[in-house]
Automatic annotation (TrEMBL):
Monomer. Associates with 30S ribosomal subunit, binds 16S rRNA. Belongs to the TRAFAC class YlqF/YawG GTPase family. RsgA subfamily. One of several proteins that assist in the late maturation steps of the functional core of the 30S ribosomal subunit. Helps release RbfA from mature subunits. May play a role in the assembly of ribosomal proteins into the subunit. Circularly permuted GTPase that catalyzes slow GTP hydrolysis, GTPase activity is stimulated by the 30S ribosomal subunit. This is Small ribosomal subunit biogenesis GTPase RsgA. HAMAP family: GTPase_RsgA. Binds 1 zinc ion per subunit. Residues 103-249 form the EngC GTPase domain. It comes from Actinomycetospora straminea. Its cofactor is Zn(2+). GTP binds at residues 142-145, 193-201. Its main location: cytoplasm.
Length: 348
């Protein structure tokens, strides 16, 4: 049975996103455990922001992510409230496992550096993850003070790669665009992007303090050092919270079919006019998508990027099913082995 717990008199939890809907999810068996939000996850320990303090807690077996709402009692996480949203990627292990980058996210700022060349494929991947999470994505084009001539071309490319998504050009050095980014950072906001994209510099500008460490980008290859080595939740001066994340070298998709469709809304809309409902947009007659490519209204690169992500998502699903089946077979083999051992012991 669930019992509503009144929102604390303190304004702290409200600043972190606590509301009456979260309070209503606290079980009546909470036994005085305090609600709080996970601000950082380390091995064997989590930092939780409560109404009174920032406390270190034992996760006690719970698989937690930054942004989770939990109950803490006697230095231990006693319960985890159901997530509203979650930003998830496939891990780089090759096993198609899921890694939750942040929980209960409202806004995802996809940071794209102007000075190292626009990688639209990475942008599309990050947008697919953002849409799948249930949050609202915003593309932030950083370092526009570095190369003004490339800005117009980049904005044109992003208009194609990010249909229906706001694109905000920004310079943390000159301050251009910071007000627009701050306005876009609603609720719980997560910064994602590659190393060297200027996420930590942008985070400091939004936080109004040198909170996150920053580092230079190597001129030889445009790569930045991982100045952010962990995910951490921090309050924004104007309300809401910000989660800075380490640079993502690999952005795998997993269970992201809806997010992929949202990220490629232009392709999906064209596909509705295909002659066959199961059109693979390859050589089928009456394919509206291929007609658009041939007519120059849809870039061939855009279609190939869509098909690549769909194949990857389907592969991850197949790997997950195969792994679960293998695990089930392994468990039954062990059960059979144990049973045979028990039978032999009885016959002695």
């Amino acid at each position: 049975m669930l019992a509503a717990v009144p929102t604390p008199d303190h304004t702290t939890l409200t600043r972190y996103g606590w509301d009456d809907a979260w309070a209503a999810l606290v079980p009546g068996s909470a036994d005085g455990a305090a609600p709080g939000r996970v601000a950082r996850v380390d091995r064997g320990r989590v930092d939780v922001l409560t109404a009174d303090d920032r406390v270190h807690a034992d996760p006690r077996g719970h698989a937690l992510a930054v942004g989770d709402w939990v109950l803490v009692g006697d230095g231990t996480v006693t319960a985890v409230l159901p997530r509203r949203t979650a930003l998830v990627r496939a891990t780089v292990s090759g096993r198609s496992d899921a890694q939750v980058l942040a929980a209960n996210v409202d806004t995802v700022l996809v940071t794209v550096p102007l000075d190292t060349g626009l990688r639209t494929g990475r942008v599309e991947r990050l947008l697919a993850l953002a849409w799948e999470s249930g949050a609202t994505p915003v593309v932030v084009l950083t370092k526009i003070d570095r190369d003004g001539e490339a800005l117009v071309d980049a904005l044109g490319d992003l208009a194609v790669a990010a249909p229906g998504v706001d694109v905000v050009p920004v310079s943390a050095v000159t301050g251009d665009g910071l007000a627009e980014v701050a306005a876009a950072a609603r609720g719980t906001t997560v910064l994602v992007g590659p190393s060297g994209a200027g996420k930590s510099t942008l985070a400091n500008a939004l936080l109004g303090a040198e909170t996150m460490a920053t580092g230079a980008v190597r001129a030889v290859d445009g790569k930045g050092r991982h100045t952010t080595v962990h995910r951490e939740l921090l309050p924004l001066p104007g309300g809401g919270v910000l989660v800075d994340t380490p640079g993502l070298r690999a952005v795998g998709v997993r269970d992201a079919a809806e997010g992929i469709d949202r990220a490629f809304a232009d392709v999906v809309e064209l596909a509705e006019a295909c002659r066959f409902a199961d059109c693979a947009h390859d050589r089928e007659p009456g394919c509206a998508v291929q007609d658009a490519v041939g007519g120059g209204t849809l870039p061939a690169r855009r279609l190939e990027a869509y098909r690549k992500l769909v194949r990857e998502d389907e592969w991850a699903a197949a790997r997950t099913d195969a792994r679960l089946a293998a695990e089930r077979r392994g468990r039954w083999k062990q059960v059979t082995k144990d049973q045979r051992a028990a039978y032999r012991a009885r016959g002695r």
